[in-house]
Amino acid sequence: MLEYLVPFILVLGVLVFFHELGHYLVARWTGVKVEVFAIGFGPELFGWTRRNGERWKVCLLPLGGYVKMFGDMGAASTPGRENDGLTPEERAVAFHHKSVGRRAAVVAAGPAANFLLAIVLFAGLFMIVGRPSAEAVITVVGNSPAAEAGLETGDRIIRLNEQSIETFDDLRMVVEARPGMPTPVVVDRNGESVSGVVTPDAVEIARDGETVTIGRLGVTGGALVTLDPITAVAVAAEETWNLTMLTLNALGELITGQRGVEELGGPIRIAQLSGDVAQGGIAPLIHLAALLSINLGLINLFPIPVLDGGHLMFYAAEAIRGRPLGQRIQEFASMAGFAVVICLMVFATWNDLVQLQVFQWVGSLVG
């Protein structure tokens, strides 16, 4: 249990902390008084009170967090009834008496912090560990034709059989077409051009119901290449954008039925995944944290009341109408949104239990 729970709580805690920190920092910047900064929900496990009166605490249930600002009725940032009797000094620091633009900035800062965290995590990995190269940068397998020809891990193949090689797929196509045939090769090794001859092994495989003979060089692609800081940040931002678009596309396929709802995972599956990935070391765990940070930021932008996207939807309506929606409408929408979120969590958890075959295991005990 510790192998799964500890990585899960650690990863989720970091993501939630940065999400709430985004809300907190922009709230303070816009002059809003913060009363509570909480990681988790439910009973307080431990905490401290700052000199300015803010209560920072960690709570029992680690599935989220919140920043309670002055004038809020609760963790969902709905306006409290006491807002009607505020003094001018209190109105000046109350969240719901700030302009719609400032309130929107505070709310949007949480998801923005998650996207920014993903970029930072990816950039750190690309600078320290490296990024799989799309070019034909090779990792040489021992006792292979590539090793016998003197090729080395980290070489970038630039020409093979007098053909220009741009990607690893280009390399694969040429190699597969030349089983057992001596083939001239040119590689870039630390900025120097090195020439040689390599003879791919002849290997029989099944393809389209037939047995065919192809060439095998004994190399793998995806060699890790470290990036300089500026390039790493640029590539990390592009990676974050691409993963965000892929997630939205997958969600669209889920809604239209192109994907099965069994792919929707919940906290149990995230905990299992965190534990499994943690076995591979800190780098895979950081990569998972970046992926989850993107998902957390994106989910919070969905236009569901009680989520950040729901609040932004209210503020958009307020900007268009010139006045906020009625408090009863906001409270009712928040309750409906809360019900939707709970239903989604229950459904995702049910999927987790089915995928882990928990019900089958319980049935076998009963039987």
How would you describe the overall organization of this protein?
The chain is of the alpha+beta class. It has 2 domains: 2-129 and 235-366, no CATH class; 139-225, Pdz3 Domain, CATH 2.30.42.10. It has 11 helices and 12 strands. Strand 1 (34-49) and strand 2 form a beta hairpin. The longest helix has 29 residues, at 100-128. It is elongated. The model has no long low-confidence stretch (mean pLDDT 83).
Summarize the entry for a quick read.
This protein has 367 residues and is an alpha+beta fold. 51% of the residues lie in helices and 20% in strands. The chain has eleven helices and twelve strands.
Task: Describe the structure using short key phrases.
Pdz3 Domain; 2 domains; two-stranded antiparallel sheet
Secondary structure class reads alpha+beta
Percent in helix: 40-55%
| Beta-strand share of residues | 15-25%
Query: With helices defined by DSSP (H or I, 4 residues minimum), what is the helix count?
Result: 11
Judging from the principal axes of the Cα atoms, what is the shape? elongated
Task: Give the topology.
Elements: H1 2-29, E1 34-49, E2 55-69, H2 88-93, H3 100-128, E3 131-132, E4 139-140, H4 145-148, E5 156-160, E6 163-164, H5 168-176, E7 183-189, E8 192-198, E9 201-207, E10 210-216, E11 219-220, E12 224-225, H6 229-256, H7 267-278, H8 282-300, H9 308-321, H10 327-355, H11 358-366
